[in-house]
Specification:
The chain is mainly beta and 155 residues long. The protein has one domain: Oxidoreductase, molybdopterin-binding domain (Sulfite Oxidase, Chain A, domain 2, Alpha-Beta Complex). It has three helices and eleven strands. The strands form three sheets. A five-stranded mixed β-sheet has the order 4-3-11-7-8. The chain has a four-stranded antiparallel β-sheet with strand order 5-6-9-10, with helices on one face.
Amino acid sequence: MDRDVAVVLGGVAVLWAGAAVAQMPSVAVTGMVGHPGPVALSALKPVAVSASFHTMHGEQSHRWSGPLLLDVVNAASVVDAPGKRTHMQHVILARGADGYAVAIAIGEIEHAGEGKQVIVALREDDKPMAAPRLVVPGDSSFTRGVHDLAGLDVR
């Protein structure tokens, strides 16, 4: 029997598992985490970012909103390897439904590192999106933007 699990993380309720996740946008988080499985994205605080990038159709600019990638993986409780300062060794592999995958070093998104506001977008230009999308502000050609984000594997 599926059971829903709610955890409070930084004052925000995070929901895993069961039928409730199927009704709201979620992304599966696997790998070096204490709570592998789907994380309910709408339960996390949204952040708005704007980005401009080059495409084969010319320059594009959009505004996205959704939870920070760091909050999503932290909701699944990242597990560090034993040893000194091993947390910054993590890499997050973001995979789309079509198999396209990109890597984000945790040092890029950690506050103690670069602190880049990489998000799992749920809205684009104030309109709801059909599926979550990884948005990496600052990438000039949006090559690490993952459409139809299906999973995050913490390594």
